[in-house]
């Protein structure tokens, strides 16, 4: 990790449009943030350490993981943007390791002022409760999705559960999405191609984002 530094000033209107979670933080808490850049494989925190900061990922990917008895990696969370390891707010020790999966940039907030802001700032507390509620909903959807056996079923479930009006935009890589769906990237590619050929789902790329759209009812490829 490079030496932490104070980030440049974040324009509030810009944050509201691009990083609404940061915009929701009290101004005094945002002023305490330190920004760091991590190379792939660098550690954010280690299992057993005492939490001292809350982390917000600006770009890149951080994986929270444990090591299995056989020595393999068990990924508990893949963070691509936003806060991660939220449970550390109430934990005496970290229960996993966190490492950058690729070059990443993050903000670190001292945990004591973060806790204090949640106790004393009603608007921030309401935002945080709503955020955690959305996280619970997302986890329930993910658990239901992973219970589906076919790759196409998982893709369609994701489109319906996470999309808007039958459309979803995926800025992350297909490999990262495949891991989230519990699929190999080869299985994901085959299922996407089959759905696209059948006319059930339109698969396009807009800029760097993969866009999936539900086809009109009854529409099939000729």
Could you walk me through the main structural features you see in this protein, from its secondary elements to its overall organization?
The structure is a single chain. This protein is of the alpha+beta class. It has 2 domains: 12-117, Sandwich (Jelly Rolls); 148-214, Arc Repressor Mutant, subunit A (Orthogonal Bundle), CATH 1.10.10. The protein has helices spanning 12-18, 20-23, 27-30, 111-120, 122-146, 151-162, 174-181, 185-198; strands at residues 34-38, 43-45, 53-67, 73-79, 82-84, 97-110, 167-170, 201-206, 209-214. Strands 1, 2, 3, 4, 5 and 6 form a 6-stranded antiparallel sheet that branches. Strands 7-9-8 form a 3-stranded antiparallel sheet. The chain is globular, with a radius of gyration of 19 Å.
């Amino acid at each position: 990790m490079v030496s932490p530094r104070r980030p440049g000033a974040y324009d509030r209107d810009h944050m509201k449009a691009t990083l609404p979670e940061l915009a929701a933080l009290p101004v005094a808490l945002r002023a305490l943030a330190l920004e760091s850049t991590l190379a792939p494989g660098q550690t954010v925190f280690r299992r057993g350490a005492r939490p001292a900061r809350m982390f917000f990922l600006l770009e890149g990917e951080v994986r929270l993981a444990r090591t299995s008895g056989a020595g393999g990696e068990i990924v508990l969370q893949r963070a691509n943007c936003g806060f991660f390891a939220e449970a550390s707010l109430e934990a005496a020790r970290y229960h996993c390791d966190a490492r950058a999966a690729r070059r990443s940039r993050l903000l670190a907030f001292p945990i004591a002022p973060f806790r204090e802001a949640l106790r004393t700032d009603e608007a921030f507390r309401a935002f945080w409760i709503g955020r955690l509620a959305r996280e619970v909903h997302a986890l329930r959807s993910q658990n239901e999705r992973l219970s589906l056996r076919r790759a196409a079923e998982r893709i369609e479930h994701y489109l319906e559960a996470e999309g808007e009006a039958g459309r979803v935009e995926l800025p992350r890589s297909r490999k990262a999405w495949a891991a989230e769906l519990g699929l190999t990237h080869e299985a994901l590619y085959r299922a996407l191609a089959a759905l696209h050929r059948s006319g059930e789902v339109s698969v396009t790329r807009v800029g760097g984002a993969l866009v999936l759209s539900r086809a009109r009812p009854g529409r099939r490829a000729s």
